[in-house]
# Entry
Amino acid sequence: MTKNNDSSWIKSTCAYCGVGCGIEAKVQANGKLEVRGDEEHPANLGKLCSKGLKLGETITTQGRMLSPSVHGEDCSWDDALSHVASTFSDTIAKYGQDSVAFYVSGQLLTEDYYVVNKLMKGFIGSANIDTNSRLCMASSVVGHKRAFGEDVVPGNYEDLELANLVILTGSNLAWCHPVLYQRLKAAKARHGTKIVVIDPRETASCEIADLHLPLFPGSDIALFNGLLAYMAKLNQINQRYVDQHTEGFNGALELAKRFSNITSVSLATGLKTADIETFYQWFRSTPKTVTVYSQGVNQSTSGTDKVNSILNCHIATGRVGQPGSTPFSITGQPNAMGGREVGGLANTLAAHMEFGHPAQSELLSEFWDTSNLASKPGLKAMDMFEAIETGKIKALWVMATNPAVSLPESNRINAILASCPYVVVSDCVESNDTLKYAHVRLPAQGWSEKSGTVTNSERRISRQRRLLPTPGMGKPDWWIVSEVAKKMGFEQQFSYRSEMDIFNEYVEQTRLGNEVGTPTARALTLESLSGMTPENYQSFAPRQWPAKDGVCPERLFGDGNYATPNGKGRFVAVDYKPPALSLSERYGLILNSGRIRDQWHTMTRSGLSPSLSENDSVPQLEIHPFDAADRGIKDGHLAKVISSIGEQIFIAKVTSTVSVGQCYAPIHWTHTNCSDGKVCTVIPSNTDPFSGQPEFKATPVEVKSVKTYLDAQIVSRSPLDKTKLNAIPAAFWVSQQCDSGILYSLKLTVKTLELEDLLAALIDDEQPTLVTASSGETQRVVSLQSGEFELAAAIYPSSLAGSQPDISQLVSAEAEPEIMHGFLAGTLKAKSRTICTCKKVTKADIENAIDNSGVCSVKSLGESTGAGTGCGSCVAELEQFIGNAKPISITPYERQVESACGK
# Structure
């Protein structure tokens, strides 16, 4: 359980991505949580990324939901749960079982997921439960089922290290799964692994790429269909394997032959024929190949077909479930896999049992002791919210997610939530964009307080252990759901005493009808984990499934036996249809969206960390120099993104890492921390017809310059009123957490404004003591409340924005007199931007090492400053500092464009 027999260190699992890193945590004397990597955990072997390392900074009692409330009035748990149970029961009685819905999250633990799925599908009798994993991995789920017969990832992380060729497609591994990226990078250094990155953008993962293929958005099927046709043309198909272990090959190949000519692939993808040829040759000549695919493949109107175009190539060559040779879907959330296992998606039943299989339904009904089991799939996420809009769904329970921000067409989603007759939200925070629509608020435990299990991307189950007490009246999600179920009349079936009881029930559920050779058999089984005792559960060590007869195979399907009824893998014939992107004169660019390095989802957790907020602190729109110049957009200025459904404002980042005609924006900003920058406001709700997963990677947009005249910065000990912020003449404001306070940056549309007038519009009526000063065109003020520092502010012309000090130093330094006087006098130097979050290395530290210490490589820079020696996701940026970054591959057309721009 503990390292070096020090019982103060407790093993648990990281709260962020699907890598599922093990952590060890210890409560320090000051109450803060110290976190380090668990060297014994197979997923990360002691490594953590910047977000994992800073988990301790996100532990706070501020901003927590502390008590249940109904219609804004605090109440007891019994009153709140009775209100939920009676309202759901009354709604079902009046409108039917499909009039209620649950929208849940990959942040839930498996035990939470199990109970909520059981209540909805087993006893309410509807399958209207879906999860935010619909936005992440739903296309892979369907692709796996179509090809393998079951939603199974065949390989494991070690395969990245055993492979001779690794293909990253739609996966910026360096930022989204940094620990796996470091394992791959180390493997490349050991034995020269070739790495291909397939991505429209030049991402940080390209730092270790031997070949970058910046294909047109949405053209993946053309590339992989071309690969299948190429392998067939050169007689490189494993025909014996295909004949013995698969079906449907000829149909898949027939469609793929449309791209049997590499020139046709080039025309469809925009890639150079020489690069396509190189990629195809490497795949042909390298049996040990792993293809890693993630959101860039899944989040598409053709996401499922993209997945199957990849799987077709692996099945045709027998490269499935072999050491160092397999397709590999990487999940985005810490328990997206666990939710998929227990049936958290609307179109699955439970424990990999499916709708449409009467024998499985009969087994499950008997197991749950219910006569009301759901008989058909429920509504997927976007369909669910449309059903609320049309009045078919009357009551919605949202758990541990923020759909008001994360779903496409977010303005419409907000209007739908506002119109829903009954909204219940269980969460650990007191405020987010979704909670403002809640009629009932239920305080749930947060990470560090929860106990249960999660499953990572390699099918490895790990324990998440309770590290800290829960503030206020917060409860586990499984307990909240179980208590509602009891009050709805299902007390006997939900009488759990602990999360271990639920885990044991889930283990038994995976055994239902799972005898080898039976028509109800499935790959998922936890048979050997039956009858877990409290001691076993508490000391449970990470292990993969299937767990049967004490043996856990590291890989699946490697023997050619699949989870289909006849045991054969299926080829799926997929056709490439160019995306219907109406690039009219108005919509001249394609918008891509995704994560940035140091933030997570809608920042309700990661945004609490000052360290994680230091690198990318504003929502930036990446745009190519030609497109920026063509629109009069300058780096660091405002840019308005306009689509067919809405518009939002971002800070422009002019960069050649995106291609001409494309742009990119992050997903993380919300109404809570920004006036604009909410990318889902401009993304339509177009979905994949098979998986229901929305398209987040290819939205036609126009981008225009936004003129501002003044910039302002305010640093405050406590949050400012958002209503007042939105009322001032600002085109844009954004906030970020800093040490002991919050920093607000504003861009104003007026040419003149007195600082005192700005503050009068923002602060309370109580008159503070203001200490003001002016320096040239800049106004500065410090506000004191009863002699204590409260906030500081500055207004200056937008042209001087880059030369202003970082006033967050005032609150972080407790407004020491010399700091305050330096700020007021205009002599306070700006803090240097943090480049390496893990080791807190700034731009100034790096430049000093290069200029004064003779540093000439990333390695020597790491030795000198520590930069890049943590999770390594900053290495691509470090390369640029030392001048060794690989030149960006550009087409002759782009070269002409850059020449026209004066580059």
About this structure: Residues 77-95 form the longest helix (19 residues).
